[in-house]
Design a protein that fits this description.
This protein is 20% helix and 30% strand. By secondary structure, it is α+β, with helices and mostly antiparallel strands. The strands form four sheets. It has a seven-stranded antiparallel beta sheet, with helices on one face. Strands 7-13-10-11 form a four-stranded antiparallel beta sheet, with no helix packed on it. It has a two-stranded antiparallel ribbon with strand order 3-4.
């Protein structure tokens, strides 16, 4: 399932989240499939940071709103992740679910369960590029401030959907900010 949602965050909320995150950005990481550790990789050229759940009143309010949209308890969510893609930055196609046959993922799945869905909220308008693309599904979503793309990658039986493969196309003009 994939849905584009309008007006998930207000313009003021987008600006405030960017301002809170800006000074805390570091090179983005991904999970090394062999070790399960976070590593910096050329597959993702963004900068990022995580807020702790309910870290500020704004983040707590957004955590509750996201949980309501995703129809999951707040306790089932991860900390709000902010990603900044400067001009030229993007990410290679990847899955957000954890591969159960991968030994590095098995401990994480045992500890906190399988990921089931993602909500990517766009914090700014991007003049050119920066689309969230789903190559297997043939979809591309253009970033528009306050809007979001929601997608699921596991059904109620725990079967993984490989059509959830997604990427961020390179930003060709301007910058892109997202909250996931």
């Amino acid at each position: 399932m994939l849905a584009v949602l309008n007006g998930v965050f207000s313009a003021d909320e987008c600006e405030e989240v960017i301002a809170l995150a800006r000074g805390r950005l570091r090179p983005s990481t991904l999970v090394d499939p062999r070790t399960g550790r976070d590593v910096v990789s050329g597959l993702r050229s963004s900068l990022g940071m995580f807020f702790r759940p309910a870290e500020t009143p704004l983040i707590a309010r957004l955590d509750r709103r996201i949980a309501e949209i995703m129809n999951l308890p707040v306790s089932h969510g991860e900390g709000l992740q902010i990603l900044h893609y400067p001009e030229g930055a993007g990410s290679a196609p990847h899955y957000d679910f954890l591969v159960p046959s991968n030994p590095a993922n098995q401990a994480s799945i045992a500890r906190s369960g399988q990921r089931v869905s993602t909500l990517v909220t766009y914090l700014n308008d991007v003049p050119a590029g920066g689309e969230t693309v789903f190559p297997a599904a043939g979809w591309a979503v253009s970033p528009q401030r306050g809007n979001a793309v929601y997608f699921e990658y596991a059904n109620s039986h725990g079967e993984l959907d490989h059509a959830s493969l997604h990427a961020s196309s390179a930003v060709t003009r301007g910058e892109k900010w997202v909250a996931t």
